[in-house]
Specification:
By secondary structure, the chain is α/β, with parallel strands linked by helices. Helix content is 34%, strand content 15%. Bound molecules: threonylcarbamoyladenylate and magnesium ion. Magnesium ion (MG) binds next to loops.
Length: 325
């Protein structure tokens, strides 16, 4: 697209110039810790500042009956992606071939503060992509940081591919909803993990296996890989210490994750002193890690009410305790 006068409609630059006020408003909303509806070429996303745990918790709350799955960090350029993730030669080759576009790379985290623990579900890897839609890239460039954005639907419903559908689903939770037209791809991005061993296809999408293999050679089968090395594909942070749920307090040697009023202690970590579930969600993974670092005999966790974000917190705690695979 260009402004050479031959294009009867708006070229990309004119299109963006026309929408500068909206782009600035979206960046300001993100800086203020609010959510925005962000069009991408794949599906509409519900976006938040990736570095702000409270804003990320608000995404999970908005989706309803959520699980704390790790989210994709969207950035405006390859250089911005390299600042937050460690992209090796294979990841770089894939990025150069398919970005901007519908490919997400899972790679080791370089800057853990740029994409908070909750957004990564406590993992030391991060999913990154540079979206193809010019409006989303303009918002990301204006904002400057990474924006995590799952699809903008309520949990268990189809991903929205039009502005109207996105607004219907989660518009009530967003400070603003940018209209980027109908999504050109209409299907979520392809997710490829580039860690040790051959790259692995974690989620098929618009960039096909054949296209990926033309750039990096044969992909590992996720299933084979899981057999060879159980747990390596785990999408859940698991503390080293065992986790004891529904605890009224710590026993000798235990760390304690408190929720609501609790006595202070060297190994006591407050999820939320006031019993606020959004605050508890925002603190969950970083406090699990902090508790684990004290090398306790176990991590005891206070009961968390099973309502709202409490459902996702309890789901994650049950996984940490080994009750769910
Ligand atoms: O097209 C898309 O990717 C859309 C638009 C909005 O960009 N976003 C999207 O996000 O589909 P979501 O949250 O629905 O999907 C994220 C996917 C999940 O399959 C998740 O498990 C995977 O990425 N993922 C994220 N971080 C990961 C990590 N550290 N390791 C493995 N998988 C990860
Ligand atoms: Mg989704």
């Amino acid at each position: 697209m260009g402004g050479d006068g031959s294009d009867p409609g708006f070229g990309e630059d004119e299109f963006l110039a026309h929408r500068q006020a909206e782009i600035e408003a979206a960046a300001a909303a993100l800086r203020a810790g609010r959510l925005i509806i962000l069009p991408t070429e794949t599906v509409y996303g519900l976006g938040a500042d990736a570095a702000d745990p409270a804003a990320v918790a608000a995404i999970f709350a908005a989706k309803g009956r959520p699980r704390f799955n790790p989210l994709i960090a969207h950035v405006s350029s390859l250089e911005a992606a390299q600042a937050i993730a460690v992209l090796d030669d294979r990841a770089l080759a894939l990025a150069r071939a398919f970005w901007p576009g519908p490919l997400t790379l899972v790679a080791p985290i370089r800057d853990p503060a740029a994409v908070c623990d909750l957004a990564r579900a406590g993992l030391d890897t991060v999913a990154v992509r540079v979206p193809g839609h010019p409006l989303s890239r303009a918002v990301l460039a204006a904002f400057g940081g990474a924006v995590v954005a799952p699809s903008a639907n309520r949990s268990g419903r189809p991903s929205p591919t039009t502005h109207a559908d996105a607004v219907d689903e989660t518009g009530a939770f967003a400070a603003l909803a940018l209209d980027g037209g109908a999504c050109a791809v209409g299907l979520e991005s392809t997710v490829v993990a580039v860690l040790d061993g051959p790259p692995r296809l974690l989620r098929p999408g618009a960039v096909t296996r054949a296209q990926l293999e033309a750039v990096v050679g044969p992909l590992a089968e996720a299933a084979d890989d899981a057999k060879r090395s159980p747990g390596r594909l785990a999408l859940h942070y698991a503390p080293d210490a065992p986790v004891r749920l529904e605890a009224s307090g710590p026993e000798a040697g235990e760390a304690f994750l408190a929720f609501g009023p609790a006595p202070e202690g060297a190994k006591v970590f407050q999820l939320s002193r006031t019993g606020d579930l959004v605050e508890a969600a925002a603190n969950l993974f970083s406090l699990l890690r902090a508790a684990d670092r004290t090398k306790p005999t176990a991590i005891a966790v206070a009961p968390i009410p099973d309502v709202g974000l409490g459902e996702a917190i309890n789901d994650r705690l049950r996984r940490a305790a080994g009750f769910v695979g």
